[in-house]
């Protein structure tokens, strides 16, 4: 367990992604995945108000609704850290103050709760001044509807400006950053963005920790995978880095008797600022390798081997 930044949110070393709930996992299967995750000691669930608005016939909020139903039926609200996001729902686009406030109310309703533990700005809204965004989020915290706030998909400059404004005005500061980061996608985070996170004591909670499934090892030359993410994941095979990383993952995984996905997440968790990578599972069977990553400790030599392969 580890604290997210300077917050009081004590979370497990794997965050369960809820993007599949109500989409590729129906409610019954989603409940099974959530049950298995929490029974294994997990306590950190991530979703967003927009999940799964891209599906024909869906309007967004399906994942929040499933999670809210599970929390109520299992009586787990007080021992699970629930994170959701604002800015992308079809009815609540952007980060204007009124949008943030209205979207939060809808998320609370769907989740069936009186507070959101960690509320992310899903995507930055360059049209809205950081002062307006930070002030709106601070208002939700002061009302008790949100415990802590965080950012996602934001530039180093806008993140720094948000943090500095909050400091200067005595408003609620971001405690975490959710960003695209994994063994085959390092450049976007390692550099100015991570420097801001380190300077302000934020925690990193990276998404696409398994590179859309590529780092599970199931995508190989000549292998067809039935997944809505197959095209994106398979694209990594065409690079020099992709096969090189898979070879390193295979070797380290064999040494520990685990799956490549477990190793990929363990590597990610060991990186500076990272507290809990996010990964999702459509079935309890897919969850097994993810859960194994929570207790997997890689040696310094293995970490270096993976890091070198991923350059």
TrEMBL record:
SUPFAM superfamilies: NAD(P)-linked oxidoreductase. Signal peptide: none annotated. GO terms for molecular function: oxidoreductase activity. InterPro entries: AKR_Detox_Biosynth, NAD(P)_OxRdtase_dom_sf, NADP_OxRdtase_dom. One of its GO terms (cellular component) is cytosol. Pfam families: Aldo_ket_red (PF00248). The lineage of its organism: Bacteria, Bacillati, Actinomycetota, Actinomycetes, Kitasatosporales. This is Predicted oxidoreductase. PANTHER family: NADH-SPECIFIC METHYLGLYOXAL REDUCTASE-RELATED, OXIDOREDUCTASE-RELATED. It comes from Actinacidiphila glaucinigra. Residues 13-307 form the NADP-dependent oxidoreductase domain. Keywords: Oxidoreductase. It comes from the Bacteria.
